[in-house]
From TrEMBL:
The chain crosses the membrane at residues 65-85, 91-109. This is SpdD-like protein. Keywords: Membrane, Transmembrane, Transmembrane helix. The keyword Membrane applies. The lineage of its organism: Bacteria, Bacillati, Actinomycetota, Actinomycetes, Kitasatosporales.
Length: 115
């Protein structure tokens, strides 16, 4: 009940084989060794070259550049605000039209029940 079931892989030949073949090996035992084996090769790590330091120039704005950055930021805020207000207006107009349609349908259905 608690053992997992291994899915099977159907082959085009019609033979069904499990995905994992069970392997049992009992003849492998660990061997403790006291001395390390040497292969005669040099295994010292290679020296890491120093990364060259790149000087990043500091951002320096002239008064004209500062005015341009402030003006573009203000323009961006105004454009984003206009887009958001227009989306809000579109939602409000849609809600009003749905409300008018609901009122007209309610009036028509109530008038039909009275007759």
């Amino acid at each position: 009940m608690f053992r997992p079931r291994v899915p099977v892989n159907p082959l085009p030949t019609g033979l069904v084989t499990p995905l994992v073949q069970p392997v049992t090996t009992t003849d492998i035992e660990p061997r403790p060794t006291d001395e390390p084996t040497t292969c005669g090769l040099d295994h010292t790590p290679a020296p890491v070259p120093a990364a060259p330091r790149v000087q990043v120039p500091a951002v320096r704005l002239t008064p004209t550049g500062l005015v341009a950055v402030v003006a573009s930021g203000a323009g961006l805020v105004l454009v984003v605000g206009a887009v958001l207000v227009s989306m809000l207006l579109a939602v409000a107009v849609s809600a009003a039209s749905v409300a008018v349609c609901a009122a007209v349908l309610r009036s028509l259905l109530n008038d039909q029940h009275r007759r």
